Amino acid sequence: MARIIALVDRLPSDTEWKGTFAWNIILSLAESQHEVLALSPCDLDSIEITHSRLNIARPAKSFGLQYFPKWLQALFQFNPEIVHTFAIQEPRMRGLTIWPLLESALSVIPRIRRFSTALSSDCFTPFPAVN
Length: 131
Known about the structure:
With 131 residues, this protein is of the alpha/beta class. The protein is 27% helix and 18% strand.
């Protein structure tokens, strides 16, 4: 089975349905015998999902550009075959972010596949790199 990293910034108990949906997908991947590492800037004590094939980590407190080395280190230490990102919450995206650099870093490793889940039409709203 595959080694999957899931990047998500929503809690399973999120007031919107999107957090529950994202974490259900992550848990389903683990239940399907994939080895899953969920990386999130959220407080780990707020995530009450467990599975023997699921590890959850918080490399940094946001997706801000200043934390790019920590996110990149977490990605490469796990050595994933697949990186799955879930639509991020726009209000949390203040200032420069890791997303443009992460896309470039993943593109230099041809064996890593990247999937993104857009959870609604507002996920397609373009947002500037700097506010």
